[in-house]
């Protein structure tokens, strides 16, 4: 009986030690993207600061971005980039993408800036990312939000 208790205790200790040796959990979660800032440039094009968020517990490298941008109900164009950006676990980083917007979207943003009001936007498309020591994968993005004029910064929506 005593021998059986000792064996059971040793097996329990070995199991606990094995569980500790496995290291932290490697969780890969869907990333996200959103517009952090939209700046109307002097040449009429836009500079879109796109915030890429990594919700995984491991670093991810973002290789390609292809997101259709709509301002209000107007298609503005596609935010397309190949940033090769490495984002740490549960972190975010920003890339800038220059876009030549459609005339209707340009007018909607100009109206929002002139009247100091917010404007709705949507992003739809894909982010291609590679988890640390993993295979590349495309993630679908479908986000809706709004941007408002930045006080003291003409031509900037945040």
TrEMBL record:
Annotated transmembrane regions: none
Keyword annotations from UniProtKB, A to Z: Signal
Region (Disordered): 132-158
InterPro entries reported in the protein's UniProt record: LEA_2 (IPR004864)
Top-level taxon: Bacteria
Coiled coil residues, start to end: none
Residue ranges with Basic and acidic residues bias: 132-143
Domain Late embryogenesis abundant protein LEA-2 subgroup: 50-131
One Pfam family cited in the UniProt record for this chain: LEA_2
Signal peptide extent: 1-21
SUPFAM superfamilies named among the record's database cross-references: LEA14-like
Protein name: LEA type 2 family protein
Source organism of the structure: Lysobacter koreensis
């Amino acid at each position: 009986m005593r021998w059986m208790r000792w064996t059971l205790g040793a097996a329990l200790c070995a199991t606990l030690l094995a569980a500790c040796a496995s290291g932290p959990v490697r969780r890969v979660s869907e990333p996200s993207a959103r517009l952090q800032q939209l700046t109307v440039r002097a040449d009429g094009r836009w500079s879109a600061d796109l915030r890429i968020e990594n919700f995984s517990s491991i670093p991810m490298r973002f290789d390609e971005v292809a997101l259709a941008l709509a301002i209000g109900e107007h298609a503005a164009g596609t935010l397309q980039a190949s940033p090769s950006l490495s984002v740490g676990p549960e972190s975010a980083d920003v890339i800038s993408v220059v876009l030549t917007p459609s005339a209707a979207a340009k007018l909607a943003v100009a109206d929002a800036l002139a009247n100091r009001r917010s404007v709705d936007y949507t992003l739809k498309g894909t982010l291609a990312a590679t988890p640390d020591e993993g295979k590349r994968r495309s993630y679908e993005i479908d986000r809706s939000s709004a941007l408002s004029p930045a006080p003291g910064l003409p031509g900037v929506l945040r």
